[in-house]
Write a sequence for this structure.
C-alpha cells in the first residue's frame, strides 16, 4: 500500500469547518507537513508539525497528530472559497529528509 | 529570482524524442528535489541533490531518466526516448539545507510534459 494515504475529495459549505485526514505508515516519521496547491501554481507549505507534538494551531489552521495511530489531520476553520485547492499531506523521517507525499485531497468550497 | 523557477512550463513532444527540463532553485538553497506528479496521483520522488554530495537517484523510474546539477545552481532533468507513460507534471523543489532544522521545500510551478 501507499506510504501516505488521503481521501481524494472533500466538499464543504462556505463558513463551515473542513477536516482533511491523512494516515502514514512510517513510524520513524519526524516531520509531517501540509502543502496546498492552487490551480496552476506550485505547492506551498501551509504548516508542519514535529512528531513529538500533538497539536499545532496557526490562525484558522489546526493540525492534530495521533502518533500511535499514525493519523494526521488538518482543520480549516471558517472555510472560504479561496481555500479551494488540493491539500497534500507529507512526511519525512530522520536520516532522510526527502518528503513522501500523499495523492492530495481536493477541497471544494461551495456557497 | 524570488522563487523556484522551472522551464519550460509546458512541453509537448513526440514519443521517442529526448526532453530536457530545467530548474532554477532559490539562491543559496543547497538541497534540490525532483518529483513527478501524474494525473490523479501523489508526488513521486525522483532524485535529490545536496550540495556536492552524490545525488540520491533512488526514485528514478528507469535508465532513460537522468539529472544533473552543477554545484548549488541550476539542475536539468533529462528524459531520453520519451514514452507516453512519461506524461506528467515534473516538479522541482529546493530547500535551504537538508537537515533537521531546515525542512521546508519550496516548489516551482512545474513543467507539464505531454508525450504524443
Amino acid at each position: 500500500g501507499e506510504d501516505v494515504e488521503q481521501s481524494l475529495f472533500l466538499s464543504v459549505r462556505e463558513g463551515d469547518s473542513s477536516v482533511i485526514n491523512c494516515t502514514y505508515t512510517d513510524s520513524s516519521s519526524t516531520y509531517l507537513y501540509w502543502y496546498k496547491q492552487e490551480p496552476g501554481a506550485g505547492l506551498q507549505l501551509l504548516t508542519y508539525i514535529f512528531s513529538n507534538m500533538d497539536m499545532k494551531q496557526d490562525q484558522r489552521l489546526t493540525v492534530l497528530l495521533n502518533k500511535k495511530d499514525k493519523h494526521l489531520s488538518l482543520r480549516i476553520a471558517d472555510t472560504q472559497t479561496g481555500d479551494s485547492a488540493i491539500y497534500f499531506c507529507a512526511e519525512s523521517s530522520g536520516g532522510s529528509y526527502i518528503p513522501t507525499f500523499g495523492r492530495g485531497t481536493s477541497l471544494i468550497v461551495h456557497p | 529570482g524570488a522563487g523556484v523557477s522551472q522551464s519550460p512550463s509546458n512541453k509537448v513532444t513526440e514519443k521517442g524524442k529526448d526532453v530536457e527540463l530545467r530548474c532554477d532553485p532559490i539562491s543559496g538553497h543547497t538541497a534540490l528535489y525532483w518529483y513527478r506528479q501524474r494525473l490523479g496521483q501523489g508526488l513521486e520522488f525522483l532524485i535529490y541533490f545536496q550540495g556536492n554530495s552524490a545525488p540520491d537517484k533512488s526514485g528514478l523510474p528507469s535508465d532513460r531518466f537522468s539529472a544533473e546539477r552543477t554545484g548549488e545552481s541550476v539542475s536539468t532533468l533529462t528524459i531520453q526516448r520519451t514514452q507516453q507513460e512519461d506524461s506528467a507534471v515534473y516538479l522541482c523543489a529546493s530547500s535551504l539545507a537538508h537537515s533537521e532544522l531546515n525542512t521546508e521545500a519550496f516548489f516551482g510551478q512545474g513543467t507539464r510534459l505531454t508525450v504524443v
User: Anything to note?
Assistant: Residues 58 and 100 of chain A are 23 Å apart (CA to CA).
